[in-house]
Amino acid sequence: MNKKPTQVKKRIDVLDVYRGFAILGIFVVNIVIMNSTFLNQDEFAKQWTSTIDQVSNSILQLFFYTKFFPIFSLLFGLGISMQALKLLENNTLRFSFFARRMFCLFIIGALHIILLWSGDVVHLYAILGLFTISLLRVSNKILLGLAVLLLLFPFYDQLLAFFFELIQFKPENYIQEYTGETVNQIIKNGTYVQSVRLRLLEYLANTPMLFGFLAPIALSMFVLGLYLGKNKIYEKLPTFLAKIKKPVVWIALLTNVYRILFLFVLTKLDCYKIEWIRTGFIKLMVIADIIMGLFYLWLIGWLWYTTSLKKLLSPLRYAGRMALTNYIMQSFIGLLIFSSVGGRLYETLSPLETLLTAVVVFVVQVFLSKIWLTYFKYGPLEWVWRCFTYKKLLPIKKQGYKQ
């Protein structure tokens, strides 16, 4: 017997605002990589020495890098936990339901990698999502402890290296034949088939970062999102945000002091050349960045509930309601801007230009999302995902609108 789609009596607008904000931040970071891949990024960045470009780089480092992926992950974990808990309350939760849901998401992510961009994360979310659902009945204390442990565990690189050695997998071999110049030529002047091959090789070469760095952060945030979902924090957000105000502000201040010291002082010290000290500094910086991302969520929620800036933040909810569609659309737009199928602007945009491009594209996405949601219940990919999950063709048009 097929499940009926879960009905949401009323959307929680601030959660959609959070998702929209996360989509903006992710694109600001991703477009930097779309403009110059990891293979040549350091060399490419050396040419941008003007004050405005240095300021733009500092803005990216201070306010964007490593902050929005945790936000997006937390919100995804919260979203699937809210749905799972709803089904659990109604005694209709089945593993097959979420297996099908995550499988569809995995396929979307795999196609994203092949067709558009190698930096996809939704296929990773699909894999980790199933594990997160298995923790539904775990106690709150264990969930919090697991979230912290997953975030602070220091030996992911060593474990991954051991596993790769065990299966004789050498990621660095996949792009060893490529240089920054050959990648530049393939993206700007090569065929689409050549770019597909390059994306697949880039993905394989970047698996240490994907599974050794991003996956632990994502899983930690998933578990934290599950904890928040189990305790229905979303139903009492104003009270919760007010309750944690003092500790959140103090922690944010302290970690920001460290972030500034790291970016402008610690990396210039002689001791930074010592591997174990450098590794420790970097790990602390990552944790500080994640805390900054969580602080963004608190700040937006506080502004939403206690100030007149709610009207200014409100348009973000349109992009947030179509987060999956907008995420994939950003990669399509990036393909059109940078590759041979479009503008061929790969490795031509300055840090300021990439930042401004991301903001302009996102503003257009907010506008288009609002128009789409005037006539339809869900974004296009959200609808496909939903239909596959429930194994039926669900209505997408809002009542009152005819084709």
From TrEMBL:
The chain crosses the membrane at residues 21-39, 59-82, 103-136, 142-164, 209-228, 248-269, 281-304, 324-343, 355-375. Keywords: Membrane, Transmembrane, Transmembrane helix. Signal peptide: none annotated. InterPro entries: Bact_Transport_Assoc, DUF418. It comes from the Bacteria. Residues 228-392 form the DUF418 domain. This is DUF418 domain-containing protein.
